[in-house]
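queue> pop job 88
queue> type: inverse folding (structure -> sequence)
queue> payload:
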């Protein structure tokens, strides 16, 4: 009986250690890079709704620097070396209204190698999602 408990315990430990590695196999390499941008925009939308104010996010694709106003904060998105942001202009402005709606002045793309994946901002609902091509 003790042997059975020991074997089951060892199997549970092995499954717990290997499960995160197996779960990440179905995600593309740059999914976390896109997810960082999407998370930034989702949090900004939530702040606009929660505080009942217009929140503007400005992203500089060349440097991956972003600004959120208000509050006046800025930082740089941590992207791997082979991943970059791109847009037609030098800065992309995304505005989130207190009612959840959103406006982007132009599309923002996450580039890795030869592929460019757009960050989709639904204007009426304000939903932010990444759209792999």
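queue> result:
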């Amino acid at each position: 009986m003790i042997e059975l408990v020991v074997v089951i315990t060892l199997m549970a430990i092995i499954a717990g250690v290997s499960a995160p590695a197996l779960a990440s196999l179905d995600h593309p390499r740059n999914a976390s890079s896109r997810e960082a941008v999407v998370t930034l925009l989702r949090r900004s939308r939530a702040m606009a709704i929660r505080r009942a104010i217009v929140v503007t996010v400005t992203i500089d694709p060349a440097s991956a620097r972003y600004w959120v106003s208000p509050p006046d904060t800025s930082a740089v998105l941590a992207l791997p070396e082979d991943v970059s942001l791109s847009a037609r202009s030098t800065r992309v402005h995304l505005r989130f209204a207190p009612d959840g709606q959103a406006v982007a002045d132009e599309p923002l793309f996450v580039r890795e190698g030869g592929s460019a994946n757009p960050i989709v901002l639904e204007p009426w609902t304000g939903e932010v999602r990444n759209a792999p091509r």
